[in-house]
């Protein structure tokens, strides 16, 4: 079951990459990390992501891991889509839609939840970020399966950004 | 102006979404829900259990008396007496009989075929009592009554007479059976030495045995009736304090647990499994059912 799910995720990544790769050559790919807090499970997580922008939409393959010191230990491997819908020359707000595979490591039998260790999840939410080469971001997402939210803050480093001297303060043309 | 309106709409949508998220959030994964509660099953089981049959013996030669399920007993007036005096008994006197032959009837009567923790192969359980008016009678010393027939589908050798002792409304079978049952192809017969509860059983225990501990994250099992049926030995076991008696390793067993909530709705759990070499812990969860389905499950054991 677990192998099949991972295979599915891998295929999903390949499909997205093949579809959008010809169109992203002129865009800046970003690499970032984040810290997340889920107030419902009272758990902290670390996240890694790659950001592949295309016009107002970005595809973000990402991994989020809630370590074992939490009440709920799990990881999510998925792809989010961001749609920029509001902003200025310096910042923007984006809507988030995400599908992911969830592995609940310290899963325990809770019949009332109909929970399993391997799950498919969907999330939606909202995010804020700047338009600079090194961009902080804040996201608030809602997990439909578990009916939980998570608040994340992080930083994205954008490759091939125009200014090498002041990456943190110069607006990035791709954004 | 149009941009302002659009931004306001987006902001309104965002706020609505945030409110929706806030309202629907759940902490189910870290907070356990309250366990489902059940009321005592005693009233329900008592309403379903085999009725005690009464026979008025008013003339000599009434032998055998025949129970509804085929039990045949030959009573004898000269072999019974009052508990506190040896006076002769005069006609008429009364015989009361309870017949338990099926797993369902033993479950309804809460009278499993386990004696002092030892599992027993059972061919049936009887309660035979004699009364003169309201006084319960006993067999005279060294006197016997004949059970002419206890019907059995596939009879086996080595069945013995296990007498039951009732303390605080709980009946347990003796660990030391006294007397044997003979058999034909379709029945058992024997001469019994005591009135009261008697079972046609034999020891089915094994040195290589395991136990099952029952737990639940969804149901309070305190008032749930949990029973194990072992088809190969025709053993019925009732779980007390959430831990089974010892069951031979490798046995195929059927587990049936059921409860009745305050609204008189029925909930049950059923599982067939083969025991391994180690003690097991079973996390069970009861689901709602109809009484007719529960009865069908009991009939199918």
Key descriptive features of the protein:
heterodimer; A: 175 residues; mainly beta; eight-stranded antiparallel barrel; 1 helix; B: 301 residues; Chondroitinase Ac, Chain A, domain 3; Immunoglobulin-like; 2 domains; five-stranded antiparallel β-sheet; 23 strands; 40% strand
Question: How would you describe the overall organization of this protein?
Answer:
The complex is a heterodimer of chains A (175) and B (301). Chain A is mainly beta and 175 residues long. Chain A is 11% helix and 53% strand. Chain A has one helix spanning 2-20; strands spanning 30-38, 43-54, 57-66, 74-87, 91-104, 118-130, 134-143, 148-158. In chain A, strands 1-2-3-4-5-6-7-8 form an 8-stranded antiparallel β-barrel. Chain A starts with a helix and ends in a 17-residue tail after the last strand. Mean pLDDT of chain A is 83; it is low at 164-169. With 301 residues, chain B is mainly beta. Chain B folds into 2 domains: 48-203, Chondroitinase Ac, Chain A, domain 3 (Sandwich), CATH 2.60.220; 205-299, Sandwich (Immunoglobulin-like), CATH 2.60.40. In chain B, strands 1, 4, 5, 6, 7, 8, 10, 11 and 14 form a 9-stranded antiparallel sheet that branches. Chain B has a 5-stranded antiparallel sheet with strand order 2-3-9-13-12, with no helix packed on it. In chain B, a hairpin with a 2-residue loop joins strand 6 and strand 7 (118-132). Chain B is elongated. The N and C termini of chain B lie far apart (76 Å). In chain B, 31% of the residues are buried. The interface between A and B is medium-sized, with 24 and 19 residues.
